[in-house]
Amino acid sequence: MLSESELLSRVNQPGLFHTAGGITILSARPDGTAEGVLDVTERSYNPHGTVHGGCLYTLADTVAGSAVAAACGKPCVTASGTLEFLRPATGSRVFCSTRPKKLGRVLNVMQVELTGDNGKTVATGTFTFAVTG
Questions:
Q1: Which CATH number characterizes residue 53's domain?
Q2: How many alpha carbons lie under 13 Å from residue 133 in its C-beta half-sphere?
Q3: Domain range holding 108?
Q4: Which end of the chain is more exposed for a tag (fewer CB within 10 A), N or C?
């Protein structure tokens, strides 16, 4: 099983899809909780000048998957994910926190919340992961 520092080193390595998009995992703990952040750049915006929904989805998916990997100690893949967009994300950073709804041997269900740097919730969602390792 990887330690938290080993897992963070692996998921935050340069050149991965999410790291190239400005996403960093800040913590991923064995209890199935995790935090991450999207550093917003010009590349993060949609044509309306707010953070693109795909960036927010990638943030949520990556943070929740990291939490499952930390809790299970094995690789996992996203089986499904939903995200409810509550308000436009603006500002320089978007934060994501996740907690488990169910940690299982094969299926793991995670609740996510994304907040802007103003502290307001911009999205919530549920992601299900299948353990593959």
A1: 3.10.129.10
A2: 11
A3: 4-131
A4: C
2-11: per-residue pLDDT in tens?
Answer: 889 999 999 9
* b/e burial code for range 112-132 (CB count within 10 A of at least 16 → b): bbbbbeeeeebbbbbbbbebe
For residue 11, the Cα-to-chain-centroid distance in whole angstroms is 11
Measured in whole angstroms, the distance separating CA 118 from the mean position of its chain's CA atoms is 19
Binned at pLDDT 50, 70 and 90, residue 72 comes out as very high
pLDDT band at 1, cuts 50/70/90? confident
Query: Which residues of 40-92 form beta strands (DSSP E)?
Result: 76-85
Q: In what order do the strands lie in the sheet with 107-116?
A: 23-28, 34-39, 93-102, 107-116, 121-131, 76-85
The number of distinct structural domains making up the chain is 1
- Round to whole Å and give the CA distance between 54 and 102: 25
